[in-house]
Prior knowledge:
By secondary structure, the protein is α+β, with helices and mostly antiparallel strands. It has 26 helices and ten strands. The chain has helices at about 35-40, 45-65, 80-90, 115-130, 140, 170, 175-185, 200-230, 235-260, 270-300, 305-330, 340-370, 380-385, 390-400, 405-420, 440-450, 475-490, 510-515, 520-525, 525-535, 555-565, 585-620, 620-645, 665-700, 700-730, 735-770; strands at about 10-15, 15-20, 100-105, 135, 155-160, 190-195, 460-465, 495-500, 540-545, 575-580. It starts with 11 loop residues before the first strand and ends in a 33-residue tail after the last helix. Residues about 1-25 and about 785-800 have low confidence and may be disordered.
Amino acid sequence: MRRAPPCGKRAALRNGFIWARIPRPNVWTPALIPLPAKFVVRWRWPIVAAWVLVTILFVPLARDVHHYLQVGGQEMPNAESTRASLIVRERFDSPYPAFVVAVVHHDSLSLADAAFRGYVDSLTVGLARLPFVLGTLNWRNSGDVSFRSADGHTTFIVAGLRQVNDNDPTADVPAIRSTLGAIQRRSGPSISTLLTGAPAFDYDTRTVAAEDSERLERTVIPLALLLLVVAFGTLVAAGLPVAVGFIAIEVTLGTIAILASANITPMSIFVLNITTMMGLGVGIDYSLLVVTRFREELDAGVSPKEAAERTIRTASQAVITSGATVIVGLAALLIVPLPETRSVGISGLIVVASAILMSISFLPAMLAILGHGINWPGVMSARLARFRSQVGWNKYAMGISRHPKRAVLLSGSAILLLAAPAIGAKIGLPQSGWFPSETEAGRGLTQLEAMGQGGTLYPVKVVLRSTDGSVLLTPDRLRGLRAVSNAIRADPRVKEVRGIVDAQPGVPLWQYAEAYADTAAARARSPGLFRAYLSRDGAATAYDVFLDDSVSIDGAFNVVKHIRALDTRTLPGLSASELLVGGFAASSLDFQNELGRRFPGLVLVVLGVTGIMLGIVFRSVLVPVKAVIMNSLSVAAAFGMTVVVFQWGFGSRLIGLEEPAKAIFILGPVLVFAIVFGLSMDYEVFLMSRIKEEFDQSHDNDAATVAGLSATGATITSAALIMILVFGAFAFARVLAVQLVGFGLAMAVLLDATLIRMVMVPGVMHLAGRYNWWPGYRRPKGSSGNYRRGSKETPAGVPHS
């Protein structure tokens, strides 16, 4: 039995042996960018002061960022739904380009009672007086019985809002609710008044996302700090990663506020929760690696300044490499011309770049300042030392080395089994839970659905325009317009169609032709109808298609497809015409189709660039190929589990879903892949960097794999546990899209840090032997090191019997 000689002031007892780190000045590091270690240590105080100043400047901006984020914004350049929306906004004078709905209910009074009628009229007048309201409709001025429930206890008012751009109506919601609230307080609280509609849902979703982010931060940060205390055994060492995560979040949100408020680029509400998740995740992840390495160097007996310099050259370099893999995945989101994906890509790039910069500057500078103070308080460090012991990890790593085939077979089978449900994934908008139901807008929708008018909020908008610029209100073209509305109405999922030839049910076509013979006079008689359904030049018309409340969002997709399949050129008078379908369902379908079309290219870019980058860093072919395959397996397994929980509903109630979503919103898998592929590559880089470092000293693949796994196992597990906590917390958010991403990320990290990185990767490393390092490795002349499996030689500093 051999023992490594003690080295320096301190030596650690591991696995019954005196194990001390031997200083190695020529240690291999995964250097993508050489770091000025001496510069950081020398200027440590100014560097720390600069980061503190940056944080102070950005915190106020970060607190107000949710005011500038968009909930909508799924319009894509050149998409059919976008073209339809632009025609309506630019060529029509509709008073309802965007609208909200005030739902009014009383348990005992009905519209037969003067008090209830008077209250509804007061609300209508109050809304009409607001400067941004273009028009109002209620049961009285519309003459439409659909505005009142069968028992008369519920009615609603539609208020059209001025729409300069996509986000303006959302900003009007607080003022509208303030007006309604003032009228309600004067009339008594017994009458329920709820504001709903697309702008109200956008506003409530934005508010809920901000509240969830703050609430989960307050929950997650203390728990993460507790786990870090256990992992490090000291309060000081545990506090630094949390500080890095916090600063990265504040800097990112402040930057996003600047970009969005200055209209440099639209930013989606998704970035609020994604930034919090990633900021805490990568900030703590990278800091854990850096702090752990610094303490190891201190244990080797070197001075704090020298330990900080060595940490920069090793751990901080590994952070740059691993961070670069995350950046690749996030940068790939920028190639998709959609506000949601680009917003997440931009915010992710900023937060990861911030975490990397802090891990190579602020954190090493703080470590150089603190020195051995990083281990304060010493009593706690001694009592929690067993949690940091490598004894168990050394035994575990030796077990993997003895049975690598079994490890690969069992872990691979488990991953494939978990990934299998992904084959049956149904991509689409969820059939339930898409909108936060407990918000005011959600409660208003529930009341509308109770009276059978839920489809009022999101009608399908159909635009028909003549391509030669000719007017549409001629007798022959009116027949074609009626044929279009009849074809749409024939779909059993369609409840009602409103248009220029459908103003009143049952009116024969000849009466419309007679009424519209003098178009100017007809406009004067029915200005509201013409403003809503005929363009100013008369060359385009619009239809509002209201779906039955029983039609799911997936069913609405099919209605959009059915309408788009109509060939208007075969209809009377419409040979030179174009039919365009817009609205929420159509824009969501276009979003899904566009993102689905670009997703394979995004995957290929991420896989290719990441593989090439790792090949250059590790000078190997097998290492990057293995890493890409392993990461793909963890993402596939996470997607499989997402299908089980969200689509099939197994365990969905545990995360607050009342019923299965029955479909997976495509943005979830795309974001999970782009984010987690790089994040899980962190653990690959951490592990492989240490194995490569050991291998370059010993030239023994098996011993290097055991030593690398023993040295990084506790760090990777601790980092993964904290990241699972951070991501998993967002699986309990109140916005379904955020739940999808949070659950997918947590599951991917869990599987990656256990079955993949701790079982399958070391098993493959043992089986591949010297081929792991081909073609970049050449055994030194005269070296007795054995880099094949089965070697009984051990590198310096690695104990064995």
